[in-house]
Each structure stands twice: as structure tokens, then as C-alpha cells.
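Retro notes, item 3 of 5
We never archived the inputs for the pyridoxal-5'-phosphate complex last cycle. Fixing that now. Sequence and ligand:
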Amino acid sequence: MEFSQYNVNSLMYITPRPEIVFTEGRGMWLTDNNGKRYLDYLQGWAVNCLGHCPAVIHEALVAQSQKLLNPSPAFYNAPMVELATMLTQQSCFDRVFFTNSGAEANEGAVKLARKWGQLNKNGAYEIITFDHSFHGRTLAMMSASGKPGWDTIFAPQVTGFPKADLNDIASVEKLITDKTVGIMLEPVQGEGGVIPAAREFMQALRALTKKHGILLIVDEVQTGMGRTGELFGYQLSGIEPDIMTLAKGIGGGVPLGALLCREEVACFVPGDQGGTYNGAPLMTAVGIAVLKTVGQPEFLAAVKENGAYLSQQLTKLSDDFGLQGERGEGLLRALKLGQPIGAQIVEIARNMEPFGLLLNSPRPDLLRFMPALNVSKEEIDQMLTMLREILAQIKK
Ligand SMILES: *Cc1c(COP(=O)(O)O)cnc(C)c1O
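Structure as it came back at the time:
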């Protein structure tokens, strides 16, 4: 495709992309280069927690870009310290290291756990992860992830990530040896198809890790920052993990992530961890603006309420079309189609006129919904009306 004088084949081919170029976004809506508008239920992949181009992020970027972009990670800067303080005040963690992505935060979590294992557990280094989990695309995180096939694409693999089954505590227990230093999971498996870890399972994992003196690590790159209706997904089960990672929502659309841990686990010494952009004020200033908005009790209450509404309406849709129900937490939800028609629905939805609908199908028989956390009931209804139309067309 030619886009004015530019050629899309100048880019590496990493995923099939539709023949459109997005040029603007506002709230739940995107606009392409032909002026067509799309109701966006991807939101940069659960990233734009306040929708496209929210005023608070625009203002934070403008204000900070006039003050200081990057003094280097060898110095403190005000937004970095302020955001770390806010995060520790609002979570069970004491220390924060900022990153540029989720995969980088998870890499840091694994390094921290292995270091802690060297100091406290005779060099134990294995971290139990789960089938169908997703932790990012660096070499080590592709090994940590439970995506089928990912263990061989870029062999040799980074070792030390045995896989258990989600919501099956016996499968975890079986893998614990004197080499085990921790267990890492997503409170809701996102890319795996929106599969929540049961509250009892999270509690059993906390008890099991305490019993063996090993670490519980939550990857909240997708579930953190209000997505589930709690500020952090671990709060759904009333447990307190040892390490947490954040990204996606915390930047509201800009590259920002974080690695958080409790004081007892904070064992990095100078030289162990770092990076040129880590904690840069331009991004951490955005994080402050996002957390100030998302952390409000009224904001989280609205996420819960809209999540419950979406859940109820998806259930109704499922009943009406003989589908297999829905699942999820807060505003991270999936509709179980019962047939491999996900890709077909995504395609039809995007091509609808006068405006399109952007949906995601993480599995052939599943649709995933990850709207902005400030989505309105009207925007939920509008999506459901369009989806109903598509299902009626397909099921005819
Ligand atoms: C998206 C995601 C990642 C990877 O984050 P990147 O910023 O793309 O590196 C890791 N873990 C989970 C649970 C995610 O959803």
C-alpha cells in the first residue's frame, strides 16, 4: 500500500495489518487517513486507559517537555520520585524501578527473583509460570510465556521456567523443588484469552509460596491500573504478592512500565539493573497524571459498574445467539463464540459503514474487549448494537 509518498514495505513485516493508516484518536474513537471513524475496543491493546489523547496526558506532556526531558538515570528527577511515592502508597510494595515496557519490567522481575535466590535460597533460580501465559517478547520472556511454539522459535531457550496449569494448585506444587525461587502469573491471563485466576487459587498460591519461602510475582501489565475495577488485580483476591510488574495502562499510551517489590526483596546493588530511559521525567510525568485519575475511588467504582454492565449485556447477547457466555474482570472481558468465527467478526466489524468497530480475537472462538476505562454506557451500547448486527448476519 502507498500512503502518500511513503511505502509500508519500508517496515519489517511482523504482523498482517489492514490497509488503513490511523491519523487521529479521541476518547473511544480513531480516525483513518480516509476520514473514516472507528469505535475502538482495542485502545492500543489495553493501553489507553483514559482513551485516545486525553487532556490530562496532553497537558502533562506539554508541561514536562518545557521543563526537563531526561537528566539521565544517574540522577533523581521530580516526576520519577513522585510517581514511585504514589505507587508505593497505593500498593503493598515499597520500592519501584521504572521501565519502558512490560517485557522489560518482567525481565527485571526475573533478575530480581534470581538475585534474591542467590542471596537467600542457595542459588535457586527457577520460576514456575503457566500454560497460555503471556509475559512479553524478549528472549527470556518468550521462554517464560506459555504460548505454544514459543519454546522453539528462537532456540536455544532461556531455561528455568517450568509450566503449571492455571487454577490447578496441585500442578504447581508438583513443580516445586529446591531450585524454585518463585511463581509468576497474570491475575487474569490476557493474551491467553481473558482467563481469570480464581480467588481461591491466588490465595492458595500465596499460602504455598509462604510455606516454601519463595516469591509470588504478579504480572499486572494488563490487569493493573484499574483494568479489573481494583487499582491492581491482586487486590481482587485480598493477597499481597512480593513482586509486581506494570506497563500498558500506567503510561496511558506512552512507553512506561514499572517493577515493584517489597523491601525484603529489594536486593539489587549498583550495576545490577538500569537503562538509559528508566524513570525519564517525560514518561513518569504522564504516569502521575494517569494514576491521579485512575486511582480515584469514583473512577474505580465506575470501572466496576461499567464492567458489570458489559458483562450482563454480553451474557444477554450470548443467550440471544446461542453462544457460550462471557468471562473476565472489570473492563477486560471476553465473549465465548463457541465456533471459530472470531477473525471473521473482527474483519466485518472493521469494514462496517459509516463507521467501523475495532475488536480483538485472541483465540479463533473468542472476542476480547479492552475499552478505555472511562468508556460510557452509550459507547458500550453502540458496540453491542454493531456486534448484534454482525452476529445476525453471520448466523443467518
Ligand atoms: C502486553 C503484556 C506484556 C508485554 O508488555 P510489552 O509492553 O508489550 O513488552 C507482558 N505481560 C502481559 C500480561 C501483557 O499483557
